[in-house]
């Protein structure tokens, strides 16, 4: 008998753009699902006041950027009927009760409790309301919100990352499941969905540990088998501050705009602060195999943008042509595999491949670095000795040897002025490989531009 595949989900609220910490949660779910499970994208979009269509679009773009394709997608805003029926069940069983306190009243009660040394836990006073009390409150214009009556005692689970966990439910307030405007709240909708969609594994940030105690109690009340939970450590900024969706700087969107490689972001977000070293990977599947072995640390992990940029460059250097060909095409970079193999080791971002393509086949950059005027004689000689076409990878060696023989220049004194004249840049791809793309005509123009005489096409 084969085991049923595990079902994972990523459940962002589209109330901001996803950041690197959200990416950690996304990947720790989506990657194991690639190894024989199913992956659900669930949009937790019940907070109508904060949800915006551009954030929904942003989440889709981010998944697309990583190359993650969900097996299913759901939006909580379209599932109200399911929440309503679960609500009725809990209500019929007396597990939920209406309460009428305003946010200000609740806040005052919490402050009072703290001041008198009691934990700021809701005292269940609404449970004592009679029918007549409730009618009177409603006559005042108050509408009820609905609380779930937590069980007594402690609740425990074996956390996939943190080991055995136990929380005393008496230390928690009965959670509000439905707001006074009728909106269902996350702690409830998430449980109803996880049960209804057959989710077997929930991997999420440590900030949800307490929710898990409440949600396990809800699963029990709904007589649903709970998923296995695992809570990972959180990522922070370099200063140790928590990430928030409102703080754009570490958003996936901004990293994308900066040209950071998606595969590097995936590796960074999933491996930082874990038992596995942060390292470049060749594909999401390769990363999934590493993530399957990792254990997140208990301490938060600090994001280091310099480390991320270095990982991005290394990732790029290792990418085979097939992995980038469509992106190169979109950037207008030609030259096929030969150009990619030549250029990749020099790139910090893929966008730089387009700059090199332009240098090779169109023109030098505007801020090109020019050779020292002292090298005019050397450059004139190089122009005079330019071999006839066709040019291939052997051309540079033959040409530079001839220039060396004619001028006596060697090593850096020979190569650097020519590199600057031909590419406008003090370093870059191997000239032997770049030269065939530049070609004779452009090479001669460039040499002429810095003092070399044009040579007629027939001269040697
Ligand atoms: N919408 C919740 C969040 O973004 C989902 C938490 C969960 O995975 O249950 O934090």
Automatic annotation (TrEMBL):
Origin superkingdom: Bacteria
Residue ranges crossing the lipid bilayer per the database entry: none
UniProt short sequence motif 'KMSKS' region, positions renumbered to this chain: 242-246
GO biological process, any: glutamyl-tRNA aminoacylation
Catalytic activity: tRNA(Glu) + L-glutamate + ATP = L-glutamyl-tRNA(Glu) + AMP + diphosphate
UniProt key word Disulfide bond: no
Binding-site list for ATP: 245
GO MF term set: ATP binding; glutamate-tRNA ligase activity; tRNA binding
Presence of the UniProt keyword Cytoplasm in the record: yes
Occurrences of domain Glutamyl/glutaminyl-tRNA synthetase class Ib catalytic (ranges): 9-291
Domain called Aminoacyl-tRNA synthetase class I anticodon-binding: residue spans: 343-448
Sequence motif 'HIGH' region, residues: 12-22
Record's subcellular location: Cytoplasm
GO cellular component: cytosol
Record function comment: Catalyzes the attachment of glutamate to tRNA(Glu) in a two-step reaction: glutamate is first activated by ATP to form Glu-AMP and then transferred to the acceptor end of tRNA(Glu).
Similarity section: Belongs to the class-I aminoacyl-tRNA synthetase family. Glutamate--tRNA ligase type 1 subfamily.
Subunit structure: Monomer.
Protein name from the UniProt record: Glutamate--tRNA ligase
Taxonomic source organism: Hansschlegelia quercus
Taxonomy of the source species: Bacteria, Pseudomonadati, Pseudomonadota, Alphaproteobacteria, Hyphomicrobiales
């Amino acid at each position: 008998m084969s085991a049923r595949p595990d079902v994972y989900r990523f459940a962002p609220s589209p109330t901001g753009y996803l950041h690197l910490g959200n990416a950690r949660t996304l990947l720790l779910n989506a990657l194991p699902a690639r190894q024989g499970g199913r992956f659900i994208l669930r949009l937790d979009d019940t907070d109508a006041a904060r949800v915006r269509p551009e954030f929904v679009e942003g989440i889709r773009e981010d998944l697309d950027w990583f190359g993650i394709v969900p097996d299913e997608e759901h939006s909580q805003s379209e599932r109200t009927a399911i929440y309503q029926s679960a609500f009725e069940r809990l209500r019929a069983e007396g597990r939920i009760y209406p309460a009428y306190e305003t946010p200000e009243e609740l806040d005052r009660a919490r402050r009072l409790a703290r001041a008198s040394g009691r934990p700021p836990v809701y005292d269940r006073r609404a449970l004592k309301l009679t029918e007549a009390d409730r009618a009177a409150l409603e006559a005042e214009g108050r509408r009820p919100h609905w609380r779930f009556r937590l069980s007594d005692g402690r609740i425990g689970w074996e956390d996939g990352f943190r080991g055995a966990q136990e929380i005393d439910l008496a230390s928690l307030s009965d959670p509000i499941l439905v707001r006074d405007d009728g909106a269902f709240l996350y702690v409830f909708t998430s449980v109803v969905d996880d049960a209804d969609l057959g989710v077997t594994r929930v991997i999420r940030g440590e900030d949800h540990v307490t929710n898990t105690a409440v949600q396990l109690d809800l699963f029990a009340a709904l007589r649903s088998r709970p998923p296995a939970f695992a809570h990972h450590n959180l990522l922070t900024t370099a200063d140790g501050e928590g990430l928030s969706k409102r703080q754009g700087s570490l958003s996936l969107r901004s990293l994308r705009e900066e040209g950071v490689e998606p595969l590097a972001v995936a590796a960074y977000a999933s491996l930082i602060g874990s038992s596995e070293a942060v390292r470049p990977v060749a594909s999401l599947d390769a990363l999934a195999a590493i993530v399957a072995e990792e254990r997140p640390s208990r301490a938060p992990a600090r994001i280091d943008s310099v480390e991320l940029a270095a990982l991005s460059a290394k990732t790029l250097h290792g990418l085979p042509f097939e992995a980038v060909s469509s992106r190169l095409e979109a950037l207008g970079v030609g030259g096929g595999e030969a150009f990619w193999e030549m250029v990749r080791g020099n790139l910090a971002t893929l966008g730089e491949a387009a700059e090199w393509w332009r240098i090779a086949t169109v023109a030098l950059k505007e801020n090109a670095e020019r050779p020292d005027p002292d090298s005019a004689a050397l450059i004139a000689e190089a122009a005079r000795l330019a071999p006839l076409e066709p040019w291939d990878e052997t051309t540079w060696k033959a040409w530079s040897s001839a220039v060396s023989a004619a001028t006596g220049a060697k090593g850096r004194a020979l190569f650097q002025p020519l590199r600057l004249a031909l590419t406008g840049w003090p370093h870059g791809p191997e000239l032997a490989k770049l030269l065939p793309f530049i070609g004779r005509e452009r090479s001669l123009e460039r040499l002429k531009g810095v003092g070399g005489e044009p040579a007629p096409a027939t001269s040697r």
